[in-house]
Amino acid sequence: DCFIPHLTVTTFANAVAKLSGEPYFTLGLAPLLTMASKGCWAEYMLAAPTLGKAVERAIGTIGFHSKGDTMSLAVSAGEARLSYASAARGLEGYLHVAIGTVGILLSLCRHFLSPSWRPLRIELDIPRPERPAAFEDIFDCPAIFDAPNLSVCFEASGLSKLHTGNLQRPPITVGDIALARVECRTLSSVRDVILQQIWSQVQSGKVS
Fold first, then answer.
1. In this structure, are strands 70-76 and 79-85 parallel, antiparallel, or unpaired?
2. Per the confidence metrics, is the pTM higher than 0.85?
3. Closest Cα to residue 30, out of 157, 156, 167, 124?
4. 25-41: per-residue pLDDT in tens?
């Protein structure tokens, strides 16, 4: 676990897109991305008994995952809207972050619902592409573009469904996350980021 600046992610993804000639190369990767890859923060979230409880945990502890990002959940007329706002929005290359985020949010939902579960729709805060159908084919649901927020919309009943998979996970607490990661809001300078990255490597026993 270490701090990776948003600018590093967007710059790298944008460079890959340009070199490969595939402006939406992340579409092919999105179905492979999982929430489980997000370290102890994800472990804490995925250990929740229901999707609703997992989202509550995510909203309350997202500062341990990323500086400046926020998550929110709104329920209205039987529909749940799970939204993710990235601090990378506005940076060149953000569309790759947006595409990847949708894949990860879908993975979170499917962990509690089923691998074949589909949302009502996804809403992306990126410009409408030339081939919007490619997004709907990859994510297997309707896709809306130029949305005010990046969201996954689904039936609210899914929030209370009990997870029926393997629950034999070691108990994870907020304290465990705090030991693994410094609260990102304390990383207010480049020096703080560098020191935290070094310390994370020392703790892991893998110093580069």
1. antiparallel
2. no
3. 124
4. 999 999 999 888 877 78
